[in-house]
Amino acid sequence: MNGRNQILLLRFAAPVVSVLLALAAGALFMLVAGYNPWQVYATLLTFSLGRADSIGSILFYATPLLFAGLAVAVALKSGILNIGVEGQYLIGAFCGAWVGFSLHGLPGWLHLPLAVAAAMAGSMLWALLPAYLKLYRGVHEVISTILLNYVAFSLLHWLVAEVFMDRNQQIPAGLGSPLIRTPLFDAAVAAPKLHGLLRLFGLDVPDYIAVNLFLPLGILLAVGCWFLFRHTPLGYEIAATGQGPLAARNVGIAVNRVQLKTFLLSGAIGGLVGLSHLFGYYDSFDLDFPRNFGFSGIAVALLANNHPLGVIPSALLFGLLQRGGEGIQAFLTVPMELVVVLQGIMILCVALTMRWLDRLLLRRERGTGA
Amino acid sequence: MQIRPVIEFRGVGKRFAGIAANEDISFAVNQGAVHAVVGENGAGKTTLMNLLAGLYRPDAGNILVRGEPVDFHGPQAAHHAGIGMVHQHFMLVERFTILQNILLSCESSYGLLPQLQARQKVSAICRRLGLTLDLDATVETLPVGLRQRVEIVKLLYRGGDILIFDEPTAVLTPGETADLLELLRSMSQQGKTILYVSHKLSEVLAIADTVSVLRQGRLVGTVGAAETTQGQLVEMMIGRSLTPSAERQTVTAGPLLLALNAVHCRDGRRAKALQGLSLQIRGGEIYGVVGVSGNGQQELTGVVTGEIAPTGGAVKLAGDNIAGMSMPKVRNLGVGLIPEDRDRQGLVGALPVWENMLLGQLRLPQFCHRGILSGAACRNYVAEQVRRFGIRLASIDQPVCSLSGGNRQKVILARELGRQPRVLVASQPVRGLDIGAAEMVHAQMMAAREAGAAVLLISADLDEVLELADRVGVLYAGRIVREFRPGELSPVEIGHYMLGGGQAVKPQ
Amino acid sequence: MDGLLELAASALRLGIPVAICALGALWSERSGVINIGMEGMMLTGAFWGAAGAFWYGPTAGILLAVAAGLVMALLHAAVTVSGRVDQIVSGVAINILAYGLNRFFGYRIFNMAASSPDVPGLPEISAGGVALSWIVPFAFVLTGLSWLVLTRTGFGLRLQAVGENPAAADAAGISVPVLRYAGVLLGGAFAGLAGAYLSIEHTGMYVEGMTQGKGFIALAALIVGNWNPFGLVGASLLFGLFEAMSFRLVQSQTLPYQFVQMAPYLLTLAVLAGLRGKTRAPAATGQNWSRDET
């Protein structure tokens, strides 16, 4: 049917339109702030797409966002807004790090999976508390996960600074005090790099850019999530629970159990978020381990309209923005936080266009349907 | 009193998304008259009244009030012209007191509220109508009949003299209905003009002076109530005479399928809801439950479907106690549900028709092998059900919320009856449906009965229950206070039991 | 005795920003709009408050902070009330936006992303040996005023009606969007004021993330206080007391300070978990409304 194709086209066009809208709004903001938006966007694009090291960086930056976007999207499908991916991935990363620095002598094919499993388990456990509070104590997950993020920050601070602090480290020359970090990881736990594979595609990414195994893993996971929602009963039960919990309950879906499963799945995926940085770039877990992937994940999931496959281009776009931010700061001395502003604007624009599209489609279906 | 038209519709039209809800409607209403507007659901009655009440603006034609053309930009403008409406769904803020609700809709001040004067004015109005209202009672604690009184007082407080009632008796017991009609009559004698929207023709003929009939958005005609009959009105409403309802098959009562024995339970606020309710339904039997809403209807549905665990008593499905079992388990044992609020409790609006039809059934072996869905099996089954139940749609991938009300209900029926339930619970199954769709729903329930299911029909529509049910129970204060077969009791007697009058006569 | 007085004063100092923010959230939620972005609005207020105080002095700082809160609130209102976007999603975006904007303008104005130089505060009032900001008694006035306006005036009644049953309010001729804009904007103004208190009065400078989740704690206080002005101020001050006591614990070194840091969040969670079903949000909070879509 022609109408059907048109609707499909609209569904794909909407995110593109909303990105363009966001860029236009961002341009307006730049004008007000006294920058030339044309120059900023041109620099942003040429810097991030015109060089092999930039492409590598985009892939590296996109990897955690891929997992974070999936973690948020999966939960959102069942009607849970997991704002706690932030805390969950940090806890997960610490658990992974623990396995990384405390075990020695294992082969890489065993050590890395063990660390990954630990990270997923830790993150999932951290998600269990808000899941319990939501399902059995009626505490809204948005409030509980945000409060638990702060608890996680303090807990990690304690773990790294007091309990597992590496007190035998060699203090780098010129530095008076030891770094607040865990002991160094066993070499076996390092994530295999993808440089050889990328070279096959003619991309010569410098060694210091740590694109690694977690990127293909993330893409595989996205496909897996897509399969879950498209081809398994659980996937459809999750969607029904998210969109119409009362009806889902009345047809015999155990809504609470479905939400519990999804929350834990989201938590487990969240545990993977930090690992590409942790085992690809760092050699220990320290207090400056990157934050905010969890919040960016919300933006990634929204831009993808919660579609697991849509998360892939969405994460790449955010990776591109981040790399572009470095470019505009270096070449134009425009603060790279401009990119964060753009992300915020983008969430709003996406949500607005999607909402508008829903209304449009509904009106049209009402017009043509029975 | 001089008779002159106080309201005149001249060629009024209104479209929504290109579809005409009202088209070229012209008629006049006299001062002090009770003028009924009748028609099927979807005929455009409510739209027309909303135009008069200023909620919408007409796309075509004029509305004249006291001879002057008006163009209301909102309900407030209509209020100034003395026009007020009692909506089908009451427009009351449940957590406000009666006084707050009246202040809300009647006081224009944004500053400090004149509570004392308002209190006195309301008391005066109540005295004139012979009503007693506790102004500090929270609306959510009031029975439906009283809430309607609050709506009426609101209109009078604003000085309304053209009063619109949209299906005012849909939620009332026979006794409350009689009281309301009495009140309307006395108001019309005091010079108020009343527009009465309904599809219950017996009431219309009892109260109205003139009747306008709408069909598919157009005016079929305006007749004097004294010069017409119910039969003529029905023909005008649906464009044909009503086919006599399908011959009732005699079904030999099957085994006892559903038995509730002295069931007790509490509601969401932990108050006692069911207090020793007992009833029995055999296969091939429709058991109707009537009663004023809020007497345990929701909880009765809840304990049968497993949503609510009873605090006492037994719920037996073909002899097995299912009290306290989870909803999925109860459902798998063969209990189907047509829920009261079909759009929230029965369907997931944004999901496609096919997913809704298979909601909760995807794990059945016919649709799913080794945890992976068979798309072809799902689609074939749904297409077959769509044909069998005559569901009108463009595609089974269409979101279910884009179907009409009748077709949405058919999707639920197709899903629930497709499982061949042993017990079917149907709550308000035809509320808001047009006559054609309602007939179809009733026919399917009769078919389920003939196939040997036990049907529990809970409805606020007494006529519907009396027409369909083999036996009827009156629900009051969480118990069945009287059982009878249709025809054994008059509506007035039934109303008496619905208000608890039977308790002294025949405690159970 | 002096210790107790100092503890009470310290609880006031720490609890008052939460209370002001929670009062703002009250206005927003009573009109039917959840505002997860209160945290971001408070941070925005803190930043621009510091900037204003840096340029023109504390009074100007407070006014600028309130204005900044209003601008962010206007965005939230436009997106949710007019655009009908999910209120929580919009709030999340506001928080991200606030973080980015503050860093961006931090570079532009102070040449540092994460903090401002020291800024002057208002003269303090001292009573019985403790010094407090003028904003503290003003917050109590605001509490009383909020209660009075909400429960005793036509404006308050309409705003509540819009948050409880927008369809009924609409039928009574009340403009649902106008009142929701009013509620959200009031919320933004309060959040801005709370932020100004933090940067100008409490710390004397702006520091990135200085609200430390107080905007979210305020939302919790709103629940604990059952959407009642006095109740939520009580809950906020209780939170201030927790925090004040945990500072004492740090000084006494009985617990690692990280645990003391997380205690207020955990206690808030515990209170919320224990409250289950005992408080009731306005019925239409979180639901966008339009006449055509009902």
What is the C-level CATH assignment of the largest domain in chain B? Answer: Alpha Beta
* CATH fold assignment of the largest domain in chain B: Rossmann fold
Quote the distance from N terminus to C terminus of chain A. Answer: 16 Å
- Please tell me the overall pLDDT of chain B: 88
Strand order across the biggest sheet of chain B?
6-7-8-3-9-10
Cα distance spanning the termini of chain B: 54 Å
Please tell me what the overall shape of chain B is: globular
- Biggest beta sheet attributes of chain A: none
Class by SSE composition of chain B: alpha/beta
Can you give a write-up of this model?
Chain A is mainly α. Chain A has a single domain (36-165, 180-333), classed as ABC transporter involved in vitamin B12 uptake, BtuC (Orthogonal Bundle). Helices cover 73% and strands 0% of the residues of chain A. In chain A, helix 3 runs antiparallel to helix 11 (255-270), helix 5 packs antiparallel against helix 11 and helix 13 packs parallel to helix 15. Chain A is globular. With 508 residues, chain B is an alpha/beta fold. Chain B has helices at residues 45-52, 75-80, 98-106, 115-129, 144-157, 174-189, 201-207, 230-238, 297-305, 327-332, 342-346, 353-357, 375-388, 405-418, 435-450, 462-468, 491-498, 502-505; strands spanning 5-16, 19-30, 34-38, 60-65, 68-70, 83-86, 162-166, 193-198, 210-215, 218-224, 256-266, 272-282, 285-290, 312-317, 320-321, 335-338, 368-369, 372-373, 423-427, 454-458, 471-476, 479-484. Chain B has 3 domains: 5-82 and 161-238, Rossmann fold (3-Layer(aba) Sandwich), CATH 3.40.50; 95-160; 256-505, P-loop containing nucleotide triphosphate hydrolases (Rossmann fold, 3-Layer(aba) Sandwich). The longest helix of chain B is centred in the middle third of the chain and has 16 residues, at 174-189. Chain C is mostly helical and 294 residues long. Helix content of chain C is 73%, strand content 2%. In chain C, strands 1-2 form a two-stranded antiparallel ribbon. The model of chain C has no long low-confidence stretch (mean pLDDT 91). At the B-C interface, helix 2 and helix 3 of B face helix 6 and helix 7 of C.
